[in-house]
Each structure stands twice: as C-alpha cells, then as structure tokens.
Request: fold
Amino acid sequence: MGTNDAKLPPMDDSVPADAVEVTPLLQVLTPVARRWRSVAGLTLLAGVLAFGATYLYKPRFIATATFIPPTQQSSAAAALSSLGSLAGLGGAQKSTSDQLVGLLQSTTIADRLVDQFKLQDVYDEKYRFLARDKLAKRSVISVGKKDGLVTISVEDTEPTRAAAIANQYIAELRKLTSTLAVSEAQRRRMFFEKQLQATRASLVAAQVALQDSGITQGTLKATPGTAASNYARVQAELTMTEVQLQTMRESRADTAPELRQLEARAQALRGQIAGMERPDDGASSSADYVGKYREFKYQEALLEMLSKQYELARVDEAREGELIQVVDTARTPEYKSSPKRTLIAIAAAAAALLLSCVWLVLRARWEASLRDPLVERDWATFKSALRQG
Reply:
C-alpha cells in the first residue's frame, strides 16, 4: 500500500467528563433551565395567590392635616425695655414644634380621641391602652426639616373617620395648650402673676407699718423727699433685674453674653443700694421712719414695674394663642393607601422565583454529591451506624 492507504486512528466523539469545564454561572443555570416551565408556573401561581389574598384585608386610607406651629418671639427686649439701660438684650426666636409634637403624642390627647371616636370598638380592643397603642401606630406626626410645618397623617379603614381624627388632633392640641403654660409668654405671665400677688401683700404691710409710725399722709408726700424715692427706684430696679435673670436662665446658657450683662448690672445696683443704706447720725425715730418710708416706696415702685411686665406677658400670651394656623385641613381621601396589590403580587412572584431557583440549584448539587464514591461510602457508614444504634 502507498502512503495514502495508511490507516488513520479512529475518531472518538466521546469526551471524558473530566475534560469538560463548566463555568459557575452555567452550573447554576443548568438545573433551572431543565425545569424552567415548573419555575415559571410556580412564579405565576405565587403572584396570583398573593394578589387574590390582598382582597381578604380591608383597604386603608390616609388623611393628612398640616399646620404652622407658633414661633415665639422672645420678649426679653420688651420685658427689659422698661428698665432703660437693659433694653435690647433679647430678640432671639425659638420654635415650639418639637414640644407640640410631644403634646400631640401625649396620653391625654390619645384618650380623648379614643373616647370621642369609640376606637376601642373600632379596633376591637378590650383595653384602652391597646386602642391607644393602635392609634399611635396608625398616626404619623412629623415636623418638616425645611419648612417647619407640623404634619399629622392618620390611617384608617374608613376614609371619613381618618380625616376626622386628623382634624381633631389639632382641635385637641388647642384645648390642651390653652390650659398649659407651654410657651415663654405663658410662663412669664404665671411667674409675674405670682410676683404681683406677693408684692401687693408686701405693699399693704409696708403702708400699714408706715401709718403706725404716726406720720400723716401729707407728711408722706413732703418728706423725706428725693433720697427715699431714689432708694426705692434703685431697689425696685435691682429686683426686676433679678427677676429677668431668673427667667432668662431657663432658656439661656450661663455663658450667654446677655446673662452676664444682666449679672453685671445687678452687681452695680447692689453697690448703689449699699451706699444708700449707710447709717446716718440722725435720731433713731427718724431712721425708723425713713426705713419704713423706703420700704413703702420700694414696694410701690416694684408693683408698678411688675404690673407692666404682667400686662406685656398677657398680651404676648393672647397673641400666641391664635398662632396655630391650619394650612391644610384633612379631607376625605379618595384612594386607598394600602394594600398595594400590584406591588404585593410582584414581590410574591419574585420571592417564589428566587426560592425555586435556589431550591433547584441546591438539589442538583446534593444529587451530584451523592454520586461521588467517597460521599456514597460516608452515607453507607452513617446509615449502618444508625441501624446499629
């Protein structure tokens, strides 16, 4: 034979299994591809069942109300203006938004809403605190970071009741703030009201003591003159300065420049009073009369200053009471907020797809491992151990 007749080795179409390289992605997709019809059917079935299950729940509606919280104009400047040189130390503004949110979330308002709307029956709760907790979960009260508006959102199965509860939150807030000293003006009004009562009593006592000294009313107007009046004015100014220090410490740090300036002013006034109180060489009866006259004029000047501050606080309090302005009243929602049927169906279908794929991949890996001789031997050993045990 010639070279052309030389026999060639036979072609072998079979390829050893060890020579085949399969990428990790194909190892994952191959079991899924073999049963893609089952995967698709399970995914579709899960989505349909989840969509149908949403009709078992009552739809819920969200109603929203928005209002502007009162921004308190700090009246320190107005309160200090009557003291002359102490004017112009105030003027800062502070918002009560966080405080109002706390009041809206209080047990007092929640109990009123539970009683008014019979929420124990609505939520099918035996105890009041459970109905109150469920109301809190269905109510979202927040403050806008940019605009500072307070928003009240209430979720309920009845759209009209959701709007009514949201609006009633604001009504109950107005009632509660009218009875509590939650603002700076209200706290100042209550403080000066107590000071006025004490000062009136002290003034009456000073007047009685002065009349008991035997000095007539005409003599009171004629003597001892300017010295006692100046002493009373400085003493009253010192008292008012200390009052301002007490009220300012509630809202400012100890290192605030306004606070330090007031403290320096109070120290200076104390020095003036110490100089005026140095004993004279006059008779004891005259000194006793002058002391009583000074006390009377001091209480009289103090009462006048406190009256001015009290009236300022009352005006500020009346102005703040009307500053809860409703921007948007809650209206009956026209469309449900939950359940979101489409999203639930898509989520259920996606979960079924993922779980079925994971199950098929794990099952294929498990079956492949069982075909390994070493694994098969280990399983045989394990089963025999169980039988022997």
Remarks:
- DSSP finds 15 helices and six strands in the chain.
